[in-house]
Fold Nickel import system ATP-binding protein NikD.
Amino acid sequence: MPGGRHVHAVTDAAFDLAAGECLALVGESGCGKSVLASALLGLLPGNAQTAGSARLGDTELLTASERELAGAIRGRRIGLVPQSPAAHLTPVRSVRAQLEEAVRELTGTARRDLRAAAERAAARAAFPLDHLDRFPHQLSGGLAQRAATALALVGDAPLLLADEPTTGLDRDLVDRTVDELRRQAGAGHALLMITHDLAAAERIADRVAVMYAGRIVELADAPGFFGAPGPRHPYARGLLDALPGRAFVPIPGMPPELGDLPSGCAFAARCGRAAAACETVPAPHDGVACHHPVTAKKEADDARTA
Ligand SMILES: Nc1ncnc2c1ncn2[C@@H]1O[C@H](COP(=O)(O)OP(=O)(O)OP(=O)(O)O)[C@@H](O)[C@H]1O
Ligand code: NI
C-alpha cells in the first residue's frame, strides 16, 4: 500500500479442489476474492507478500517463477476468466484475431484450421460468430465477458478460475455461461468460480467457500449450504437471508476496511450472536470459523421457542 501501510487482504484461506468439481467463492465486494485469485496466478503486485502453499499438481504456485507462470501455467494449466474482461482484451485487435492467436499458442492448431477452431471456441462461450470481427470497444459488457470466457477455455486448462464471470449478463446468459463453465468441470476440469451471485453459485457449485474480510469463514457442501441444514456461519446465513427469494433482510452495517480490521472476529460488530468470545479471532474448525456457529439442533430449539 502507498505510505508503507500493510493490508492483510487474505488470511487463512484453505481449500482444495479436485478435477470435475466446482467450488464457488462468495463474499461482499472488497473481501479479498480477487486478491486470492491473483495470488494463485502470480499476478499480485510486486510489493505483495504471500505465505503458505498453493499446489497445482506438483507445482507450488506461490513460489513459481514468472517465467514458469507465464510459459506453462497461465492459460495452459489455469484458465482465467478475468473480472474486468474489457481490461484483459487487447484493444487494437478483433476478437477473432485474439482467439486465433490463443488457439495457435495454446493448442498448436495448424494455420489452416485456426479459423474453425476459433469459431468453435467462440461458440462454446455463446459469443455470436457475426461479432467476431469486432474490436473490444465495440462490444457490450456482456459480449466482452463472453469473449473473455471463450479465451479462457481455449487452453483446456485443468483449473478454470472465473472471477465474476457473469457480471453484466442478464439472467438467461448468466445461466448459459455458468452452465458452460459447469460443463467444463464435468469434463474433468476443476472450476473455482468467484461470484457475488449466490443464485449462480447454487446453480452449479458442488461446494461453497464464503469469504469475509479476507478470511474464508465457511466452507461447505453446496446442497446443505443452500438447502437444509443451511449455512453455519452467521455471516453466511445473513448472505442467504438477504436474497430476494428468501427472507430479503439485509445484514446490518458494513464490512470493515481490510486496512483497519478489529482484533477479534471481523464480523462480530454485525453479528446477532456476538459474545465475549468473539474478541478473539475464531480459528476455522470443521469448515466454519465462528465461536458459536449455527447448528441444526440450535435452529430447531430456536424455532420451538420462537
Ligand atoms: N494493489 C493493492 N494494494 C493494496 N491493497 C489492495 C490491492 N489490491 C487489493 N487490495 C486490498 O484488497 C482488498 C480486496 O480486494 P479484492 O479485489 O480481492 O476484493 P473482491 O472480493 O474481489 O471484491 P469485488 O467483489 O469488488 O471484486 C481491497 O479492499 C483492498 O483493500
Ligand atoms: Ni474481485
Observations:
- The radius of gyration is 21 Å.
